[in-house]
Amino acid sequence: MSAPVTEIADFGEIVLIVAAGLSLALLSTKLTERVPVPAPGIFLLAAAVISDVFPGLADHVSIETVERIGVIALIVILFDGGMEVGWRRFRGSAWPITALGVLGTFATAGVLAVLGHYLLGFSWTIAGIIGAALAPTDPAVMFSVLGNREVKGRSGTILKGESGVNDPVGIALMIGMIELATEDDGSFWIVVEEFGLEMAVGLAVGVVGAAMLLPLMRRVSLPSESLYPLRTLLMAGVIYGAASVLHGSGFLAVFVAGLLLGDARAPFKGEIERFQSAMASLAELTVFVALGLTIVLGSLDEEGIWLDGLLFALLLAFVARPLVVALLLVRTRLTRGERTFIAWSGLKGAVPILLGTLVLLGGVDQAEQVYGIVFVVVAFSVLAQGGLLPYVARACGVRLTTPRLAPYEFSVRVEHEPRGLQHYVVAERSRAEGTAVRDLPIGENTWLTLVVHGGAAVQPRGSYVLRQDDEVLLLGDPGDEDELRRLFEDGSPSA
User: Fold this and answer.
1) Could you give the CA distance from residue 255 to residue 285 in angstroms, rounded to a whole number?
2) How far apart are CA 355 and CA 298, in angstroms?
3) Which of 148, 203, 362, 427 is most solvent-facing, going by the fewest CB within 10 Å?
4) Separation of alpha carbons 427 and 436, rounded Å
5) Domain-embedded: residue 314
6) Burial of 375 from C-beta contacts in 10 A (0-12 / 13-18 / 19+)
C-alpha cells in the first residue's frame, strides 16, 4: 500500500475514533434522564478508564494540547455565557455577581490555601496554587448537570454571571501565583500587578470589541444566513487574541463582549445564539474528555493524591464555598434557601482543568500532584455535588423548570427589522402575571397583537388573563421598551 493511501487510512481511523467517541458521548446525555449521573462525569471517567485500557491514546494528547483545547473551549463557553446572561440581567444582579466573581474568587482561594497549609501540610506556595486552581466555578457544568431543566429566578442569573466573572479572575490569579512560585525575585505584588493589568486591559478590549462588532452584525450583510453565526464566533476569537496580545485577560474580554451583545438586536440573532449554545456544549464535552485522557488512574494512589483531592473537595464544598457565600451575600435580598443553593452550586469544570495544565506547563514543584488533585476535585464536584443538585434545589425551595422543546418553527422573514415589534415572556410575580389584557398599563399607543399559551396561539381579548410563561407580541413605541420589559419580565426585586 502506497504512503498516501496509508496516510489517508490512518487519518480515517483517527476521524472514526473521534467522531464515534463524541457521538457516544452525546448519546450518553440521554442516559442522564434516567440515571442521576451528570453527563460531564460520564465523559471524564469514561475517558480516564479508556486511557488506562489503551495507554497509547494518552501519547496523542499532550498537556499542551489539553491547554489549547481548554483555551478554545473557554472562549466559546464564556462568549456564549455572556450572551445568555445579557447586560440587562447582569445589571439587575450586579452586586452579588461581582462580589462572588471577584472578591469570592480571592476569598475562596485564600481559605483553601489556609486549610491546605495547616490541615494538609502543603507549603504556602503550593497551597495557594491549589486554592487558585479550585476557586473558579463553572455553571456550564451546572446547566449540563441539570439536563433540560432551568434554574428560575435570581439564583440562575447569579451563578452564570459569577462564572463569567470569576473565570478570568481565577486565570489571572493563577498566572500571578505561577510567577510567584517560579521567579527567584517573585513577590505577592507580582500577583496584584498581573491581576490589575489583565483585568483592566481585558475589560477595555471587551467593551471596544462589542462596540465594533455590533455595527458589523447589523449593517454588513453576508451571502448566506449560515455565515452569520460563524462571523460572530470568529470575532470572539479576534477579541480574545487582541486582549491577550495587549497582555490583558482575553477571557474577560470575550465575556464582556458577549454580555454587551446579549440584549442587542441584530439580523439572525436567534441562529447566532443557537449556534453558540451548541458549540459551548461541544467545547465543554471536549475539555472533559481531554482531561480524562491525560490522567492515569493508578497514579492517583501515589503520594495519596486521591485522598488529598477528596479532602480538598470536602473542604471546598462544606467550608470554603459556604463561608464565602454567606459573608458576601449577607446583605442581598436572597432567601436563605437561595443562598444555600448558590453555595452548593459552585461546581468545578473547564477552568480548573485549564489552570491545572498551566501549573504543569509552568514547571511548578509538585505540579503532577496538583494536577491529580484538580482531577479528583472536578470529578467529585460533578458527580457528587452535581448528582445531588436537583435534590438540593428542591430542599432549598429553588424552582427548576423543564422548558418544552420546540423542534418546529413558524416565522415570517423580512428584509429589515420591523420597528416597534416587541416580544416578551410573562415572568413569575411580574406585574403582568394575573392581569387581564384590558387592565395592562400599556398606554394607547401600544397594542397587544398575539399571546402564545402552552404552545397555542390565543386571541388577546380584553378579558384574557395573562399567566406565567405566556409569550406576548406587541406593537408599540420603541421608546417604551424598558417600561414594557419591566411590566412583563421583572418578576422579582433586584438583589
Assistant:
1) 20
2) 22
3) 148
4) 15
5) yes
6) buried
pLDDT digits (tens, 9 = 90+) for 363-412: 888 888 998 999 899 989 988 888 888 888 889 888 777 665 555 555 56
Q: What is the pTM assigned to this prediction?
A: 0.79
**φ and ψ at residue 254, rounded to 5 degrees:** -70, -35
Structural contact between residues 74 and 354, judged by C-beta atoms closer than 8 angstroms: yes
Q: For residue 494, is it within any domain? A: no
**237, 76 in Cβ contact below 8 A?**
no
Q: Show the cell assigned to 81.
A: 455565557
Residue 192 has pLDDT above 80, yes or no: no
Q: Report if residue 407 sits inside a domain.
A: no
Residues 200 and 79 in one domain: yes
43-87: pLDDT as tens digits: 787 888 877 777 766 666 778 888 888 889 889 988 988 898 888
Q: In terms of domains, do 104 and 233 share one?
A: yes
Confirm whether 411 is domain-assigned. no
